[in-house]
Specification:
Radius of gyration: 15 Å
Order of helices and strands: EEHHHHH
Strand order of the largest sheet: 1-2
Number of strands: 2
Largest sheet: 2 strands, antiparallel
Distance between the termini: 18 Å
């Protein structure tokens, strides 16, 4: 939530993502802030999953230390899926 210039509250999906996982929203390849332990934890989590270990799932953000609470994963995962779906549908806003 943020305050608009007219004084009302507004919601921005990209603001939420940037605040929940600031490193996730950036697109710079060299901007990697996971520690070696976080990388190892995420790797162990991903290879323990059934299916393709290269695909992230809801808990990957928590297991990799990107978010500090498991409950935040659901919100972040929903936002990611919404953004991906938004892009697939060819929407411009």
């Amino acid at each position: 939530m943020y305050r608009k210039s007219n004084g009302k509250l507004g919601f921005g999906l990209f603001r939420l993502i940037n605040n929940a996982a600031p490193n996730f929203a950036r697109d710079d390849e060299d901007d990697v802030d996971l520690s070696p332990k976080q990388q190892d934890d995420l790797f162990k989590w991903q290879i323990s999953l059934d299916g393709d270990p290269t695909l992230l799932n809801e808990k990957s953000f928590f297991m990799g230390g990107i978010v500090g609470q498991s409950s935040v994963c659901s919100v972040l995962w929903s936002c990611v899926l919404s953004i991906l779906d938004h892009g697939r549908n060819g929407a411009t806003n």
